[in-house]
Structures are given as structure tokens and as C-alpha cells.
């Protein structure tokens, strides 16, 4: 559960708005992505409904291997990168050539594996930049869907049947067909990310490694043992002033303007 995106469909305006929720949001004593791992997608959907103030109607969960298959199934994606994506820590292999991830700004046609690289890389950017790239990929998927019409009903049937077999969702096959034709031409008008640049902050923390190092150094120098073992050891995010209503406010501002 590295990626959590809430999509809001406005039938009156024929628009779709998206907000990414960082996996490190600390909710009820756990990072929010832990809920899906420990209790399943319905519990995560319930928590996001409470946090956002919007009742989630449906959910879809897809793992990275199914993501590759789905992108390849629809023939790849055309994506424009406004900024360079360079990640020396991300090893890649194309046509037998091993290198590291490097895309200059420009237009690209990505297969499933390449699209996944763009969606996953974060070591030289941030989780927030990555979330925006992930939403770019969703937009590219929608553009591909817009090329299909009623004359492609057999192809659409096979694509949706295959996709639903590779994801965890409470969307039925009949619903998926209906949604496809109803929403394929709705305009995606926003791709927002809640982050520490707006309504979230990073509470103080010390990693276990740093704590253990401090204890060893104090012991070696005959100094008092530092009291860090019970401190927060994980990077996390919380709403500013610990006010969870600010997240609801953010969602209303983005979804209802």
C-alpha cells in the first residue's frame, strides 16, 4: 500500500478530481497503509472516509505485478514528463542493457515495466513528487480508454474481465462496464497531494539505528545513557496542530470549488 489516491467524480461538471494521501500519515497509532495489510481494504476505506469527510463508495487495490500486466494489456501509455527523473539507485535493464533510471523531460511511450519505474522511484525526489507522477499515469490510462468506443465492446469486455481478475475490489463486472462508458470522457482536472508543504508536518523522531549509536557512544565514553529507546523511531506525518479537521477542510476545498 505505497500509494493511496482518492478520486471524486462530479457528475454535474463531468469532472474527476484526485487527492493522494501519503502512506506515512499516522492515524490511530499506525501508519495508515498498515490498515490494509492488517485488516483489509474495507477497513482502510472506512478510515479514509473518516479522515477525508467523504464516504468512499468503491475501492480498487492493485499490486505492482498486476500493474505491469494491465498497462501492457492496453498497449502501453503515452506520458509527458515536465521534469527530469534521474534515480542512480534504481537499476533497470532494457534490451539486455543494464543502467539506472534516467528520463529527461519530454514525451514517452511506456510499457508496463517502464510505467512502474516512473510510479515507484522516489529516492531522488519525494513521496509527494512520486504521487503526482502516479496521477499522471492514471491520466494516461484514461486517455487510452478514450480511444475505445461501443464498436470495441468485445475488446473492452476482455480488458475489464482481465483487470478485475488482477485486482482486489468491490466493483462488480457490470459496474465496471457501466463506469467505463459513463466516465471515460470526464475531465481529470486536478492531481493534488496532501503533504508537509501544506497541511501536514513531521513530528520529531529518531531512528532505532541513531538511538543505538547514541547509546553505544555514551557507553564508550562513560556518559549517561540517553533516554531515546521509547521515543518515536519512525518517519511519520500528522496534520498541523494535530487538527484532523484540517484534512477534511483540504478535501472540501479541492473537491467542491
Would you give an account of this structure?
- This protein is α+β, with helices and mostly antiparallel strands and 257 residues long.
- The protein has helices at 34-39, 41-52, 64-73, 112-120, 127-145, 153-165, 173-183, 208-220, 245-256, and strands at 4-10, 15-21, 26-27, 30-31, 60-62, 77-81, 85-94, 97-103, 106-110, 167-169, 187-193, 200-201, 238-239.
- 41% of the residues lie in helices and 24% in strands.
- The strands form six sheets. It has a three-stranded mixed beta sheet with strand order 1-2-11, sandwiched between helices. A two-stranded antiparallel sheet has the order 3-4. Strands 5-10 form a two-stranded antiparallel ribbon.
- A hairpin with a 2-residue loop joins β7 (85-94) and β8.
Assign a percent range to the helix content.
40-55%
For the biggest β-sheet, the strand order reads 1-2-11
- What does the radius of gyration come to? 21 Å
Please, how many domains? 2
Q: Could you write a compact summary of the structure shown?
A:
With 257 residues, the chain is an alpha+beta fold. The chain has 2 domains: 4-202 and 237-256, LCP protein (Aminopeptidase, 3-Layer(aba) Sandwich); 205-236, no CATH class. It has helices at residues 34-39, 41-52, 64-73, 112-120, 127-145, 153-165, 173-183, 208-220, 245-256; strands spanning 4-10, 15-21, 26-27, 30-31, 60-62, 77-81, 85-94, 97-103, 106-110, 167-169, 187-193, 200-201, 238-239.
Topology record:
Elements: E1 4-10, E2 15-21, E3 26-27, E4 30-31, H1 34-39, H2 41-52, E5 60-62, H3 64-73, E6 77-81, E7 85-94, E8 97-103, E9 106-110, H4 112-120, H5 127-145, H6 153-165, E10 167-169, H7 173-183, E11 187-193, E12 200-201, H8 208-220, E13 238-239, H9 245-256
Parallel strand pairs: 2-11
Antiparallel strand pairs: 1-2, 3-4, 5-10, 6-9, 7-8, 12-13
Helix pairs in contact: 3-4, 4-5
Amino acid at each position: 500500500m505505497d500509494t493511496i489516491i482518492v478520486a471524486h467524480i462530479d457528475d454535474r461538471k463531468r469532472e474527476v478530481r484526485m487527492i493522494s494521501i501519503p502512506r506515512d500519515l499516522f492515524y490511530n497509532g499506525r501508519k495508515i497503509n498498515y490498515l490494509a495489510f492488517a485488516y483489509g481494504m474495507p477497513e482502510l476505506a472506512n478510515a479514509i472516509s473518516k479522515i477525508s469527510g467523504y464516504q468512499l463508495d468503491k475501492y480498487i487495490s492493485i499490486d505492482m505485478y498486476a500493474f505491469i500486466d494491465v498497462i501492457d494489456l492496453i498497449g502501453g501509455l503515452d506520458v509527458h514528463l515536465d521534469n527530469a527523473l534521474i534515480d542512480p539507485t534504481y537499476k533497470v535493464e532494457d534490451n539486455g542493457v543494464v543502467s539506472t533510471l534516467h528520463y529527461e523531460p519530454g514525451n514517452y511511450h511506456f510499457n508496463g515495466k517502464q510505467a512502474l519505474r516512473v510510479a515507484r522511484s522516489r529516492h531522488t525526489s519525494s513521496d509527494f513528487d512520486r504521487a503526482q507522477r502516479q496521477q499522471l499515469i492514471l491520466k494516461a490510462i484514461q486517455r487510452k480508454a478514450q480511444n475505445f468506443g461501443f464498436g470495441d465492446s468485445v475488446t473492452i469486455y476482455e480488458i475489464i474481465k482481465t483487470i478485475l481478475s488482477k485486482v482486489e475490489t468491490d466493483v462488480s463486472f457490470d459496474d465496471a462496464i457501466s463506469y467505463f462508458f459513463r466516465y471515460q470522457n470526464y475531465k481529470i482536472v486536478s492531481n493534488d497531494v496532501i503533504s508537509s508543504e501544506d497541511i501536514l508536518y513531521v513530528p520529531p523522531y529518531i531512528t532505532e539505528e541513531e538511538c543505538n549509536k547514541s547509546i553505544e557512544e555514551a557507553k564508550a565514553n562513560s556518559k549517561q545513557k540517553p533516554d531515546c529507546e521509547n521515543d518515536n523511531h519512525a518517519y511519520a506525518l500528522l496534520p498541523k496542530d494535530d487538527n484532523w479537521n484540517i484534512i477534511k477542510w483540504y478535501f472540501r476545498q479541492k473537491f467542491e470549488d
